[in-house]
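Q: I have 346 residues here and want to know how they pack in 3D. Can you give me a structure?
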Amino acid sequence: MSVLKEKIKHLFTGYFALVMATGALSIASHLLGFIKISQMLLFCNIIFYTVITILTIVRVIFYFRNVKEDLTSHLKGPGFFTLVAGTNVFGSQLVILEEMYSVAVILWMCSIALWVVIMYAFFTAVTIRDDKPTLAEGINGAWLIATVATQSVAILGVLLIPFYENQVLIGFINFFTLSMFLLGCMLYLSIITLIFYRFTFLHLKHASLTPPYWINMGAVAITTLAGSLIIINAVGSPFVEQFVSFIKGFTLFFWVTGTWWIPLLVILMYWRYIVHRFPINYDYQMWGMVFPLAMYTTSTYQLSEALAIPFLKNISHVFIFPAWITWGFGILLLIVHLYMDLVRQK
């Protein structure tokens, strides 16, 4: 029990990335016709979301001081945005696979409340604190989960529109989701500028090239998905229809940006693991690499639908395989890690 308490006390803030990765992969599998795999991943995600939520609630109740310290940290704080993104991805999974709108509405409302608290608590804390780290020490790809969280709110909101009949409420949701989409775009462009500067003008050790840097691509992938869903569901909404041309261009811009990132990130991973022989073992942050691959697969498929570009679906049919492989490899490493933890305690 003491060991469990210690684990909860120092629980990794970004563990909901496991839910994000599993949910995105499940949705991608469903869209591509792999129904049994998508259902299996949904079953896994119900377990993941339930367990991590319980552990997080226990940590907030009994170790609030540690939670507060993590939330106000430049390095650990961004991980809390995975609570928002994981909740919305799980809700989207329930809507797309099972049409469980009622549960998804509750998750969406909770995610909006979490978004407000985490967004303003974190950015206020890192702005007003006196002892700030240098740019090289304080910034990494995890900061872009703020973008991911914001776009995830927009995505689940769009998916929930069929659940409502009140036209006034639907009009508000359309306005709200489009606003969140644009806000997410702003956050990405602001944060990626700092990360790109970090990459190109400051010394970058291979050990510092952690998996969350894949969020450089994952954040634009989910932005592409949000834009695509807004375009697809714009019919019947006079407010959204007047922005469709703009959203189409902006969405394609972000998809191209995400596609550009992939070869560079692969090369940098080669530099880290092959050239410098960095050991491959379980890393709490590794789900930050799995999620972007799954999300890129999903977003490319939906972009194909939104812009009527059929050949883009071929990319999704290819990318689903590395997404499955990395998820399976991550689960295997997680099981081994938990088993070794248990052996060490004995």
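Q: Anything worth noting?
A: The mean pLDDT is 92. Residues 18 and 170 are 31 Å apart (CA to CA).
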